[in-house]
Design a protein that fits this description.
The protein has helices at 2-25, 30-56, 65-68; strands at 78-84, 88-95, 104-109, 116-119. By secondary structure, it is α+β, with helices and mostly antiparallel strands. It has one domain (30-119).
Length: 121
């Protein structure tokens, strides 16, 4: 019986240490949170473009004043926009989200419903 309690104590201690480790290492850094938000904003742009194309047969210019109110995040970053109303669009964002002095790049275009990380931040 004493041996069983020793093993039980060891298992309880291991579970507590494991829980503390999971809680410590599963936190999102501020840079990671900014990246998640940027990618969500860029996916929103993709969905807006896809909807606009389905309705009107052409893509809108994301950097046009008419759409800036719907895309306020574009004011916060260095953004390169390429646009062809019927041929497609491309939006590349350059940013230093983790504050390490190195710029990362993220890209979204009409070809795929995903944000592509061109260069790591």
């Amino acid at each position: 019986m004493a041996r069983f309690l020793s093993w039980l104590e060891i298992l309880v201690i291991a579970a507590i240490i494991g829980g503390i480790g999971i809680a410590t290492f599963s936190r999102i850094t501020p840079g990671e949170a900014l990246e998640i938000q940027l990618e969500a904003d860029m996916l929103q742009l993709y969905e807006m473009e896809a909807d606009h194309f389905a309705r009107y047969g052409q893509y809108f210019r994301p950097d046009a004043a008419l759409y800036r109110a719907y895309l306020p995040w574009m004011e916060e970053y260095d953004v390169d926009v390429r646009h062809d109303a019927t041929g497609g669009y491309s939006v590349v964002v350059h940013a230093d989200l983790d504050g390490d002095g190195e710029l990362g790049s993220w890209r979204v275009d009409e070809s795929v419903a995903a944000v592509v990380r061109a260069t790591n931040d």
